[in-house]
Amino acid sequence: EIARALAVPAKLLMLDEPAVGLTTLEIEHLDEGHRATLVSKRDRYQRIIEQVILAGIEQRIFAVDDVKLTAYAILGMCNHVAIWFKPGGRRTAANIAEEYGMSALRLVGYQPAIPRPELASERAD
What is the pLDDT of residues 77-92, one digit of tens each? Predict the structure, then answer.
């Protein structure tokens, strides 16, 4: 489901690649090789989030004026987790990812599917 897909970047950044969020904030201090690898991962996350947002807009379940800016906001929220998240703390990574997914849904103006008016060209006469 498109709406649930927004939790994925938060979960990946916390569980699969915890250093990505932290190093993204310090990218200018990395050597060229590490910087290129990190930029590639960051850009991949950016594209995934933008694709999910565009799919939600196309399905008329998201209401976003600026896809790129909204994706930046979601990525920023996910990246920041690396600064404060502690495994074994009050909340699990999966729980935080779920909460962040819900926050991302609010950010994109998630709405259940809105019935589209039938177009004359779509009628089966």
Answer: 877 777 787 788 898 8
Closest CA to 49 of 38, 37, 64: 64
Closest alpha carbon to 75 in 120, 8, 125: 8
Backbone φ and ψ for 91, nearest 5 degrees, come out as: -120, 145
Q: How many CB atoms lie within 10 A of CB 74?
A: 24
Q: What is the CA radius of gyration of the chain?
A: 17
pTM: 0.72
Place of tokens 């990218």: 27
Would you give the distance in Å from CA 87 to the centre of its chain? 21
- Residues 6+ positions from 53 with CB-CB distance below 8 Å: 62, 64, 67, 70, 71, 108
